[in-house]
Design goal:
The protein is of the alpha+beta class and 227 residues long. It is 23% helix and 29% strand. The protein contains 5 helices and 13 strands. It has a 7-stranded mixed β-barrel with strand order 5-12-9-10-7-6-13. Helix 1 packs across helix 2 and helix 3 crosses helix 4. The longest helix is centred in the first third of the chain and has 18 residues. The chain is elongated and about 55 Å long.
């Protein structure tokens, strides 16, 4: 996989892992993060993975750009990734229903399938955490089955509830807090996706693998969900 290391500021580099997003690229980035942390921990301030890139922020008081670039080349020299096994596997419970997911019927109609089939298809596969952004704890997950892919709403909702499980194009996500949003809502997850009072503050990180598991209304409420 071709790598490109570019300057991203006086104390940062960005590493590009090609132009396409895929589970293999995401797994490779996860291996890169682990290698850099293992080999360059004394000078690294932060690592910010995204879809096909990795931002590396370093301490200018402990190193210089030439040394950091050389260290990155060394750390990135062996990136054999096993996309099926890299990252943690996290299971998130979801209360799927027309009560908790007002766009389930629209997605079912669009795909010429039943609501139950939409729910089943959404649970069938593992999703890779490609990036975390928009808001703390908002994990962009991909890719959903083409049968349940759906474009963003033409008019975003002013309020999407915390825990809303949603689809936009071939991505899916869980809203970590109430906010405006234009994704299609298919359920609610009781798991807090961001809690600054806990460590770690998020249950997932870039490179992890996610599975969704259906729960009923009573279980959702028992786990702390709110309707």
């Amino acid at each position: 996989m071709p790598l490109n290391i570019e300057i991203a500021g006086q104390d940062a580099f960005i590493v590009y892992f090609g132009e396409e997003t895929s589970p293999t690229v995401s797994a490779t980035i996860q291996i890169a993060v682990e290698n850099i942390r293992a080999q360059m921990s004394e000078i690294i301030i932060d690592l910010v993975p995204s879809y096909s890139s990795l931002l590396v922020i370093y301490d200018l008081n402990k190193s210089d750009p030439f040394e950091v670039r050389a260290g990155l080349r060394q750390a990135l020299s062996n990136l054999d990734a096993d996309e099926s096994g890299s990252g943690e596997l996290v299971t998130l419970p979801v209360y799927y229903s027309e009560e908790s997911g007002p766009d389930l019927g629209i997605i079912a109609e669009r795909g010429n399938i039943s609501i139950d089939e939409v729910i089943e298809i959404h649970q069938q596969q593992e999703y890779r955490v490609y990036a975390i952004g928009f808001a703390p704890g908002f994990a962009y997950l991909g890719e959903v089955d083409e049968r349940i892919a759906a474009p963003r709403l033409s008019t975003p909702r002013q309020k999407v509830p915390r825990g809303a499980v949603a689809i936009a194009d071939r991505q899916t996500a869980v809203y970590p807090a109430q906010s405006p949003g234009g994704w299609n809502l298919i359920g609610l997850c009781p798991t807090r996706m961001f809690n600054p009072e806990q460590q770690p503050s998020m249950p997932v990180q870039a490179g992890d693998r996610i599975r969704f598991k259906a729960i009923d209304r009573d279980e959702f409420l028992r786990l702390g969900g709110e309707l």
